[in-house]
UniProtKB/TrEMBL annotation:
One of its GO terms (biological process) is response to pheromone. One of its GO terms (cellular component) is plasma membrane. The keyword Cell membrane applies. Keywords: Cell membrane, G-protein coupled receptor, Membrane, Pheromone response, Receptor, Transducer, Transmembrane, Transmembrane helix. It comes from Seriola lalandi dorsalis. Belongs to the G-protein coupled receptor 1 family. It is a multi-pass membrane protein. This is Vomeronasal type-1 receptor.
């Protein structure tokens, strides 16, 4: 195994391991919150669903990609490829859409009450589950073509207009199918990016106005909740725009060539998965409930270890 393959394999392995661990911890923390509290708040429901979507993305894309990089072949047959690629497309799409949903929800929540928002705000909690269902149906419909073009790798050269994922091939057979699929996926992504950036910018504007109004009061407190909320939104926007922006730039380039280099395809996979790997740690660091559950669990483990050590003595 040469140096480039080793670096690529280690990079995918670290990204996959960190992402699966982080999203699993977030889901377990929310599982414990659901067990101890009567119901989740809307924001917590959105964050929990985001962690699930990111975990689905990592399991269906990064895990087989990492195994392929380390030399494992013939991982999936044709039906397996169809299921895995379809699940990956849905997980990736939901990660984008739910991040946008979180940003819009926060923008509506902190917006000044007006004639329309005064009726919308009380209804927000009841809209969370229907929005989840709508996003699932939307993305299942947009990604429905993926299983028809997915297949296990064949021996020989890779045909034109085929995405070589290593463990599977996505053969679009002709330029028209290739471009239509790419435009549909990119159009959806850019639409949700635009909405999320707009709503996040609106949040920052509201926080800036509020901080100016209470600057004298908050100055001695170092910014308070407004500063923390602004940092949360800025971090979310930066993570989303940088990684999914790079992903879609590479995807647009891939639409312009008949045969895509494996290096380019690997770069797109890595960048498109960075958000799924890093976002759970952002959730853990910024969400007090999740952080409290993790700290509580670690303290319990430490107490159990101390008790066991005392008993051994």
């Amino acid at each position: 195994m040469d140096l480039c393959v080793t670096i690529k394999g280690v990079s995918f392995l670290l990204q996959t391991g960190m992402g699966i661990l982080g999203n699993t911890v977030v889901l377990l923390a929310y599982g414990h919150i659901i067990y101890t509290e009567p119901k989740l708040l809307p924001v917590d429901m959105i964050l929990c669903h985001l962690a699930f979507a990111n975990l689905l993305l990592l399991l269906t894309r990064c895990v087989p990609q990492t195994m392929t990089v380390f030399g494992l072949r013939e991982l999936l047959n044709d039906p397996g490829c169809k299921v895995v690629i379809y699940a990956y497309r849905i997980g990736r799409a939901l990660s984008v859409c739910i991040t946008c949903m979180l940003s819009v929800f926060q923008a509506v929540t902190i917006a000044p009450a007006g004639p329309r928002l005064s009726r919308l705000k009380p209804a927000l909690p009841s809209l969370v589950l229907p929005t989840f269902a709508g996003l699932w149906l939307l993305n299942m419909a947009i990604c429905i073509a993926a299983p028809f073009f997915s297949m296990a790798p064949r021996n020989g050269t890779v045909p034109a207009f085929t995405l070589n994922l290593g463990f599977c091939h996505v053969d679009f057979r002709d330029n028209l199918s290739y471009v239509i699929n790419g435009v549909a996926v990119s159009g959806r992504d850019f639409a949700f990016v635009a909405v999320m950036v707009g709503s996040s910018g609106y949040i920052l504007l509201l926080l800036h106005r509020h901080s100016r109004q209470v600057r004298g009061i908050r100055r001695s407190q170092g910014g308070g909740a407004e500063t923390r909320a602004a940092k949360t939104v800025v971090t979310l926007v930066v993570l989303y725009v940088v990684f999914f922006g790079l992903d879609n730039v590479i995807w647009i380039y891939m639409l312009t060539v008949a045969k895509v280099s494996p290096v380019v395809a690997d770069m797109r996979v890595f960048f498109s998965s960075c958000y799924a790997s890093l976002s759970p740690y952002f959730i853990i660091s910024s969400n007090k409930k999740v952080k409290a559950k993790i700290l509580c669990a670690s303290e319990q483990d430490r107490s159990s270890a101390d008790t066991q050590e005392s008993n051994d003595k």
